[in-house]
Amino acid sequence: MEYCNYINEVLRPQRHPKLRALDLFAGCGGLSLGFEALGFETIGYEMDKSACETYNKNLNGTCHEAKLEIGFEYPQADIVIGGPPCQPFSVWGYQKGATDSRDGFPIFIDAVERLNPSLFLFENVRGLLYANKGYFENVIEELKKLGYYIEYRLLNAVNYGVPQNRERLFVVGHKGNFCFPAYEGKKVSVSEAIGDLMYTTPPESKFLTPSMDAYVATYEKASCCVKPRDLNPDKPARTLTCRNLAGATSDMQRIRLQDGRRRRLLHREAARLQSFPDWFDFCGNETKRFNQIGNAVPPLLAYRLALSVKQYFDAGVFHSAERIMEENDFPNMGEYPLFQL
């Protein structure tokens, strides 16, 4: 299990931090884990109790259970990272954007303004670039006013060693000379990630009922099985979400066993597909664990981003940003574009 050995060894918090990163809306710590594996100190803020417990159980940094607001007092930090709540912008939601009470961008912008870090980075769903593009433009404009170069990319985790097609928007504000990580050459398949687990039936296994199997058969017939939902061992997984880890039958992440039965993913299988190491232990009941996994930034992708951040600081050539250009209409997105504003 080359993949498992790799994430179990590489994604381990280091004990000699040199730079401090504040992780806002930290969840269970997927983003922080990638940074800690490279020696960054992290301090997290998260309002979900179980996610905080998971963070504190596994990482060197401390996660504070807190509901963030504008004017919140933070310790000084070199970097601000985080994942402002994506529900206001997700294609699976109502896409209320700025009118949604869960919108965390004003809080993130306020933190950047108050702390003036050398670099900030945040992650969100790609829906922010479409139905809510106007709001995203406003966010970018506010961050530019604070004196940063702003660059953003749609990154697919599968291009960075994660066995899952997971496309998310990453935005970086810096003082000059930051580069996003290059793509990995090889994609990791489901069997490479969970081949030792996926055909087992431990006591906690939950099998699809006959009525659920009948529903699946109807779905597959109607769709001509163009997009079957059973995990394909020879390919990376579909995007893992809170919804499809323990949710509706049609979209559920599931394994078809060799005897024809189907079962839901175990939380350890889901964690590996998100690139969480086996030693990383999740707190809370089954639903809370699945929610933490589904919401997380894959730690292996976070590690690759943290490498780019480390190179940025090691180079020591960043400088005060100027406003390079006026806001333009966003060009054609392409597959994995890079924008600099």
Task: Tell me what you see in this structure.
The chain has 341 residues and is of the alpha/beta class. The protein is 31% helix and 15% strand. The protein contains eleven helices and ten strands. The chain has helices at 2-10, 30-36, 49-58, 105-115, 133-144, 190-194, 210-222, 242-246, 267-273, 286-295, 299-315, and strands at residues 20-24, 41-46, 62-65, 79-82, 119-124, 149-156, 167-174, 254-256, 262-264, 338-340. The strands form two sheets. Strands 3-2-1-4-5-7-6-10 form an eight-stranded mixed beta sheet, sandwiched between helices. The protein has a two-stranded antiparallel ribbon with strand order 8-9. Helix 2 (30-36) crosses helix 11. The termini are far apart. Mean pLDDT is 87; it is low at 90-101 and 319-341.
Descriptive keywords:
disordered C terminus; alpha/beta; 10 strands; two-stranded antiparallel ribbon; eight-stranded mixed β-sheet; 11 helices; 341 residues
What secondary-structure arrangement, pairings included, does this model have?
Layout: H1 2-10, E1 20-24, H2 30-36, E2 41-46, H3 49-58, E3 62-65, E4 79-82, H4 105-115, E5 119-124, H5 133-144, E6 149-156, E7 167-174, H6 190-194, H7 210-222, H8 242-246, E8 254-256, E9 262-264, H9 267-273, H10 286-295, H11 299-315, E10 338-340
Parallel strand pairs: 1-2, 1-4, 2-3, 4-5
Antiparallel strand pairs: 5-7, 6-7, 6-10, 8-9
Helix pairs in contact: 2-11
**Main beta sheet, described?**
8 strands, mixed
Low-pLDDT runs: 90-101, 319-341
Order of helices and strands: HEHEHEEHEHEEHHHEEHHHE
Q: Give the radius of gyration.
A: 20 Å
Number of strands: 10
